[in-house]
Design brief:
The chain contains six helices and ten strands. The protein has about 220 residues and is an alpha+beta fold. It folds into two domains: about 100 residues, Herpes Virus-1, CATH 3.30.40; about 80 residues. The structure holds zinc ion (6 copies).
């Protein structure tokens, strides 16, 4: 059985059998189909199946999960949308599946999370209790600030990463240039060892170049 947490079917007996998923034996939810063999399953059912196998459950054709594409045939989807369901939260019956999203927006019995759930408020309750909670929830108050900070940190790490790639590139180019110079002169002076070397003699390719980029070359 495909477990939908929000609704259950009420009209299964009168439905066309081609609307049923062979895996969960319920009417399709988000049907997906493989072009190779034409078999259709619920998206969630086939994802679960392909965790343990790589064969179509109906015909044993070897497939991967990427071979399945959402079914877009309008009449088929319309039929699924017309199936009547019952809301598990408020027990309202005879809701066409296609309208269920609208129902959930106005359902008074559904249990929802605090708007600050993403920053760890674990309050849950019905929509009419939400206003009261939101007024006293400290996490709701600081949420805008935290979101702003998170965005900033993300932007800055992107910038740092960008600068890092540039520096890396520059230091690599620089390394090549320096190598050319050394190869021509044959000799480098290392101001750490205070000695002259040929480029191949020195363990690390450190050198006397005062260009600050040399510094980065060394630490990368
Ligand atoms: Zn299914
Ligand atoms: Zn198949
Ligand atoms: Zn409801
Ligand atoms: Zn809260
Ligand atoms: Zn040295
Ligand atoms: Zn240099």
């Amino acid at each position: 059985m495909a477990i939908n947490i929000d609704w259950e079917h009420i009209t299964e007996n009168s439905l066309d059998e081609e609307l049923f998923c062979p895996i969960c034996a319920d009417p399709f939810e988000e049907p997906v189909c493989a072009n190779q063999c034409g078999h259709t399953f619920c998206r969630r059912c086939i994802i679960n199946t392909f965790r343990i196998t790589s064969q179509c459950p109906a015909c044993r054709h070897t497939l991967t999960i990427d071979d399945f594409h959402p079914v877009t045939t309008r009449p088929f989807l319309n039929q699924l949308n017309k199936i009547l369901v019952k809301c598990k939260w408020c027990s309202q019956s005879n809701i066409p599946r296609g309208d269920f999203k609208d129902h959930i927006k106005t359902c008074t019995k559904i249990i929802i999370s605090c708007p600050a759930a993403n920053i760890n408020c674990d309050w849950k309750g019905q929509p009419d209790q939400m206003q009261d909670h939101a007024e006293v929830c400290p996490l709701v108050k600081i949420q805008p600030t935290i979101v702003k900070l998170k965005t900033k940190v993300k932007q800055q790490s992107k910038q740092i990463h960008f600068l890092y790639t540039i520096l890396k590139k520059i230091s690599e180019n620089h390394k090549e240039e320096c190598q050319e110079v050394y190869t021509k002169n044959g000799i480098i002076y290392c101001d750490v060892c205070e000695k002259e070397f040929t480029i191949y003699e020195h363990d690390e390719w450190l050198h006397f170049c005062v260009d600050f980029l040399t510094f980065f070359f060394v630490i990368f």
